[in-house]
Amino acid sequence: MQHILKTAVVTAGLMAAAPVSAQMVGLATTTGGATEQIGLHLATVLSDHSDLVIRPQVMANSSQYIPMVNAGRVEFGIANYPQVAHAMEGIGMSEGSANPDLRMIATILPFNAGLVVPVETGIESLADLEGQAVPRFPANSLGEFFFTAAMETGGVSYDEVKPVPTSNFGEQFNNIKSGLTDVTIGSVGAQSIMDVEASRGEVRYLSFKEGDEDILSRYLPGTSLTTWGDRGEAAGVTPDTVVLFYDYTLFAHKDVPDEVVTAALEALYTSADAARAGGALWSEYDETQLARVTTLPYHPAAEAFFRERGIWTEQ
């Protein structure tokens, strides 16, 4: 109950450089799916292991709150590395709308994902998506980029499927559970995929193949492939399943006070066990990798924190 009260406190955008004690801070995340799971657990860790009072601000999608963080209306946000990279530069998913006041705070964890289908559909490969009911997200959204890239690795385009208009990830999951679509984007270990399995029966991730990272990276910079191996059981994967991964990041407005950034990072760095207690999505969390990717501009307090602890990587 104490944590619920803490995270429910209302915050009003950026605060002045007040004492860190009991400072209220907003953390933007999406509704539904893995991003919400990550965001809510992150809020718990930061609230329980620092003097910050974190209020998750849940919105339909990250394209809504990235400009809000850039404008200083919310202190922190979380999103995948490809989307943050595009947002800072004003390309791709943020074509024509650069967000120059965003600053990286940390690379939180690797985000393992892919396209997931109910086994009952008979779809066994990405090429098999031809002719199937596929979500069609708004132009320049993460969902559109993800599906376009993943289908291209199987030689399939939107011209060869039955597109189903889909506004956000919450609707995507509802549509596949109801049978309106045949495939969904899913993060390995996410509750949303367990819910799909409960509704549609056994599910499978459609494996990528060697060389697909070249196509994927054109749409989703920083993307690599990984074979699941012996990392434990999760809905839809086997040891031989090949999924994509990119880093999930914590970012902020450039004027968030140094002491707020430092307090957040101190909590993440010293509370690794609490972070990993967040379930399968957090199982690969490694506090020594919080600055694993430094190709985007960091908040000065974050860079100073990582350099002091000897984990800053020059890239």
TrEMBL record:
| Gene3D superfamilies, alphabetized | Periplasmic binding protein-like II
Taxonomic lineage from the root: Bacteria, Pseudomonadati, Pseudomonadota, Alphaproteobacteria, Rhodobacterales
Q: Does the keyword Kinase apply?
A: no
What organism is listed for this UniProt entry? Salipiger marinus
Q: What is this protein called?
A: TRAP transporter solute receptor, TAXI family
**Domain of life of the source:** Bacteria
Under the heading Pfam families, the entry gives: NMT1_3
Q: Does the keyword Signal apply?
A: yes
Q: Keyword annotations for this protein?
A: Signal
Q: Where is the signal peptide?
A: 1-22
